């Protein structure tokens, strides 16, 4: 294994100290007094020793002849790496171990910050994140490498880098997990199935994407916890995030937001000059800014003292006047950019502009320009390559078309020669630090190097070069390109036109398929769109396939455009009589819940019915019926129930636990009317048991949402609290915004029940921001409903008028908001407008069924306030059927339905029956531990008793007044005060 020259000293020290343990720190402090030895040198030498003796036992002996400055040493090593067991378990990643420049200087502040963050990770056992930014060549990766080498003894160092050309989903995370899989398999034990998509396991394509992403994100956190449990927490370096795919950033954001208690330090580097407001990294930076344990390090160029130290380290002596002049000239030319400095120094040395005098000191020019220094660093790079000879230049030019990373055998094939001959061409570039040798795979030391060479090729040469690379990769990959499909597509897209169009479409589609099956829907969307751009017009079947893939990916990322994409795919599949594509399009066009609350999406329903005609039974038939049931959610119950029942029967016939769980989740959600609450409650355990059997935590969590909703409607607060804990744990590990948004609604609802109005508003507001940012279709009206309840309790209903009117206008089918607006008009004294709304409402079930109980509760209050017996009589039988239940929309609750029944009975003058209803309401609301609903019921009950039993009414009103004052229920307090005044 080739060593950096200064690493020979390290190796010699290991040999001569073979009888005792040698630490990395001791090597740095005492090795030969060589002031140039670096932490990277130590690591490289240790890796060489480890390879030489093998990792199989301490008894093996190393015999090495080391030539260094004319000296020759022969020795043996028995215990050289004792005390470095962690190194033996997981070596320092090669990219971090390989020196890439002339030296390292400065960055003392940044290194101190990183050391402090690492100490915090170890002491607090909590996650820390450092975002390291700066322009190209400023030293972001070098800083991370130096710090990683210093921390390696006490940290499990993991590295992953994003690449501009490869377009591999989760690329840096794949590198991290593959390294662990190879070196620390016990750390990933128990998580292999979940992280399989990042290990390149093809079976991952069979997993449900949402569940698989949930399991993947949870497992990555679990793996990092497992590493910490071994005694050496993880230091994860994610390099070049300005080229990251959305999935890479989503997983990082999940780690930052949901894994605060995981001991890990993440160093993420990026070029701030390469991102704008539309870049996905910008959203991550904005989100992490609010997260605890996050630090920003913005690197600038080296200052005068740091640049001077770098020059002195390179020269080996203190700078004299000429050296200071050189420093000033370099700083003016490069603004202290370390990569530019080192490249220009190399250029000056190679051209003879700076030279060593007889006394060992270096002379420097007085003017850089007089020595032919190009103004562009890219030209400097090109000049350096040119001096290596035409054969090396040809090899590097070809490599620049392949990408920043390239394989030796691929490059030799492109050059039409054997690998050894190509290796000979590359050796001068390795010796001159233009490329790195990582054992058969090479990489340009910096993207600027690759880019400088690539841009100097003519467009025609580049196009033919891309075509040659694409053809070579096709031969290597055969019929299944797998993860390299995106790489091949990239080359065909940039190859010679028009012959590239069909190939570009083919491989872009394959890249989209691979990304979709490996939990990268954002990446898949990009590839599918490119496939459509390059697709030839004479292949409608391929167009349909691409549309199905695109629509599926759009749905997974929450893009509302998935509806039209999949409807178009379904119609095209029907025209082509392609049953499989029709079924796939229909199955994909649903998010697992009602698509549109308050109305029926007739176009979706039409495609579903066509798909059912093609596939009436089996697993697909069961799911199609279940989705149809949920899409018919707003239809009369007699239309929905038979479809839901058929779906469940088909799922039971299939007998697969996953199908049963998914069908139950959909079917029971389609039957959300209070009339079928008990059957839902009996059905749900079957789905929960099936989900437990699958081991799918996400599926179990989704069903827990339904369980919580049922327990709320049954008025069982203890069971609700239990399910809330399950939901909280589920959401903490879920990357899905829908899950976190729904859980925030649940949390706000519980705070509201507790009487904590400010807390409920704070959580509801944060949830709305999340819902709006992630495209949840019901985010606004869900929040509007929550704020209506909170502002009503605070007697601030005036503030809700605009929002309610907007919801009514935009969602006319959501009749619950018509009732809410009528309620507001009553409280604000606009009774004429309220009366017009009340007289127009239809008491029969309508709109979104799960909102109907809440709507009738509000109408009951409106009818009582306006003394409207006729509409009250219409809602009486409905409320009577539901009197033992609790009214809920899922995001809000009105408490015991018996309260609404009591108000309706009181409106009709049936005060004794009203009193009985209020008694029941008090029992249910106390079981809910909901002080607002208890005081509200006490107020209504006291009003009903005021004529027949004024003393009891007064006592009940006084209790309600005390509770309302304590919790800040201003509306109830105002109405109770007025009643007490009447009773005095």
What do these coordinates show?
The protein has 984 residues and is an alpha/beta fold. It has 48 helices and 14 strands. The strands form 5 sheets. It has a 5-stranded parallel beta sheet with strand order 4-5-6-3-7. A 3-stranded antiparallel beta sheet has the order 10-12-11. The chain has a two-stranded antiparallel ribbon with strand order 1-2. β11 (435-437) and β12 form a beta hairpin. α19 packs across α20 and α39 packs antiparallel against α40 (815-827). The longest helix has 21 residues, at 209-229. It is elongated, with a radius of gyration of 35 Å.
The portion of residues assigned to helices is: 55-70%
Mean pLDDT: 84
User: How do the strands line up in the largest sheet?
Assistant: 4-5-6-3-7
User: What structural category do the secondary elements indicate?
Assistant: alpha/beta
Calculate the terminal CA-CA distance, rounded to whole Å. 98 Å
Please, what is the oligomeric state? single chain
Number of helical segments with 4 or more residues = 48
Number of strands: 14
Rg measurement, Å: 35 Å
Strand content: 5-15%
Which stretches are low in confidence, meaning pLDDT under 50 for 5 or more residues running? 1-10, 12-42, 49-88, 202-207, 369-374
Shape: elongated
Q: Which sheet architecture does the biggest sheet show?
A: 5 strands, parallel
């Amino acid at each position: 294994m080739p060593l950096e020259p200064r690493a020979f000293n390290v190796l010699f020290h290991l040999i001569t100290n073979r009888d005792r343990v040698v630490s990395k720190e001791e090597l740095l402090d005492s090795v030969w007094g060589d002031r140039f030895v670096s932490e990277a040198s130590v690591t490289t030498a240790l890796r060489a020793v480890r390879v030489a003796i093998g990792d199989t036992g301490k008894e093996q002996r190393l015999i090495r002849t080391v030539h260094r400055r004319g000296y020759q040493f022969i020795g043996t090593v028995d215990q050289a790496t004792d005390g470095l067991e962690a190194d033996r378990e997981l070596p320092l990643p090669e990219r971090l171990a390989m020196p890439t420049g002339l030296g390292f200087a400065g960055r003392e502040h940044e290194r101190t910050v990183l050391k402090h963050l690492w100490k915090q990770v170890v002491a607090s056992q909590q996650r820390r994140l450092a975002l390291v930014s700066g322009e190209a060549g400023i030293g972001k990766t070098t800083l991370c490498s130096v710090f990683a080498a210093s921390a390696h003894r006490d940290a499990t160092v993991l590295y992953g880098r994003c690449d501009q050309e490869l377009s591999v989903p989760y690329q840096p995370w794949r590198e991290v997990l593959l390294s662990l899989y190879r070196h620390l398999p016990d750390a990933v034990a128990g998580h292999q199935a979940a992280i399989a998509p990042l290990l390149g396991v093809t079976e991952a394509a069979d997993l449900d994407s949402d569940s698989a992403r949930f399991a993947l994100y949870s497992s990555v956190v679990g793996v990092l916890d497992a590493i910490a449990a071994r005694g050496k927490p993880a230091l994860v370096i994610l390099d070049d995030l300005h080229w990251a795919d959305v999935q890479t950033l989503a997983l990082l954001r999940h780690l930052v937001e949901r894994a605060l208690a995981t001991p890990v330090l993440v160093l993420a580097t990026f070029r701030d000059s390469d991102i704008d407001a539309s870049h996905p990294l910008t959203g991550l930076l904005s989100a992490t800014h609010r997260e605890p344990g996050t630090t920003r390090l913005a690197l600038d160029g080296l200052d005068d003292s740091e640049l001077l130290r770098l020059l002195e380290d390179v020269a080996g002596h203190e700078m004299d006047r000429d050296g200071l002049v050189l420093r000033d000239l370099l700083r003016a030319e490069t603004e202290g950019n370390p990569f530019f400095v080192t490249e220009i120094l190399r250029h000056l040395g190679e051209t003879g502009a700076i030279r060593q005098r007889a006394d060992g000191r270096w002379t420097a020019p007085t003017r850089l320009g007089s020595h032919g220094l190009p103004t562009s660093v890219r030209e400097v790079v090109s000049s350096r390559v040119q001096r290596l000879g035409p054969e090396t230049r040809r090899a590097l030019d070809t490599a620049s078309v392949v990408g920043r990373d390239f394989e030796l055998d691929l490059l030799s094939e492109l050059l039409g020669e054997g690998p050894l001959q190509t290796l000979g061409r590359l050796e001068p570039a390795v010796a001159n630090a233009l490329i790195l040798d990582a054992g058969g795979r090479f990489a340009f030391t910096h993207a600027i190097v690759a880019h400088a060479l690539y841009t100097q090729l003519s467009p025609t040469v580049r196009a033919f070069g891309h075509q040659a690379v694409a053809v070579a990769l096709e031969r290597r990959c055969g019929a299944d390109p797998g993860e390299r499909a995106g790489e091949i597509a990239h080359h065909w897209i940039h190859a010679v036109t028009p012959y590239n169009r069909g190939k570009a479409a083919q491989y872009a589609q394959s890249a989209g398929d691979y990304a979709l099956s490996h939990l990268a829907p954002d990446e898949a969307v990009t590839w599918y769109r490119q496939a459509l751009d390059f697709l030839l017009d004479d292949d409608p079947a391929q167009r349909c396939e691409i549309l199905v893939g695109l629509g599926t990916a759009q749905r997974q990322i929450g893009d509302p455009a998935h509806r039209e994409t999949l409807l178009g795919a379904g119609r095209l599949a029907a025209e082509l009589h392609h049953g499989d594509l029709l079924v796939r399009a229909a199955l994909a066009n649903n998010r697992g819940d009602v698509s549109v609350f308050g109305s029926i999406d007739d176009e979706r329903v039409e495609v579903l019915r066509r798909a059912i005609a093609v596939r009436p039974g089996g697993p697909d038939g069961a799911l199609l019926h279940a989705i149809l049931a949920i899409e018919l959610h707003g239809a009369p119950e007699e239309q929905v129930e038979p479809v839901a029942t058929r779906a469940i029967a088909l799922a039971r016939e299939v007998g697969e636990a996953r199908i049963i769980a998914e069908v139950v989740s959909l079917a029971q959600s389609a039957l959300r009317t209070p009339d079928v609450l008990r059957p839902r409650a009996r059905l749900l355990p079957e789905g929960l048991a099936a989900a437990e059997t699958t081991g799918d935590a996400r599926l179990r969590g989704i069903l827990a949402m339904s369980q919580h909703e049922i327990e709320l409607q049954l008025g069982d607060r203890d069971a609700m609290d239990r399910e809330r804990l399950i939901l909280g744990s589920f959401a903490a590990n879920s990357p899905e915004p829908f899950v976190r948004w729904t859980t925030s609604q649940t949390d706000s609802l519980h705070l509201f029940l507790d009487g904590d109005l400010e807390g409920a508003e704070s959580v509801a507001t944060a949830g709305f921001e999340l819902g709006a940012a992630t495209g949840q279709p019901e985010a606004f009206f869900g929040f509007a409903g929550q704020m209506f309840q909170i502002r009503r309790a605070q007697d601030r209903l005036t503030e809700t008028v605009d929002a309610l009117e907007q919801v009514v206008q935009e969602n006319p089918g959501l009749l619950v908001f018509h009732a809410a607006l009528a309620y507001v008009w009553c409280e604000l004294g606009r009774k004429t407008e309220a009366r017009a709304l009340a007289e127009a409402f239809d008491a029969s079930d309508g709109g979104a069924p799960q909102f109907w109980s809440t709507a009738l509760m509000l109408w009951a209050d409106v009818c009582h306030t306006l003394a409207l017996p006729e509409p009250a009589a219409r809602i009486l039988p409905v409320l009577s059927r539901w009197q033992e239940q609790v009214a809920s929309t899922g995001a809000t609750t009105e408490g015991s339905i018996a309260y609404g029944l009591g108000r309706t009975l009181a409106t009709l003058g049936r005060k004794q029956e009203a009193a009985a209803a209020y008694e029941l309401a008090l029992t249910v609301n106390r079981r809910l531990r909901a002080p607002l609903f208890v005081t509200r019921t006490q107020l209504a009950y006291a009003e009903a008793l005021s004529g027949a039993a004024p003393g009891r009414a007064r006592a009940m009103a006084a209790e309600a007044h005390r509770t309302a004052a304590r919790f800040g229920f201003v509306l109830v307090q105002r109405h109770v005060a007025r009643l007490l005044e009447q009773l005095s």
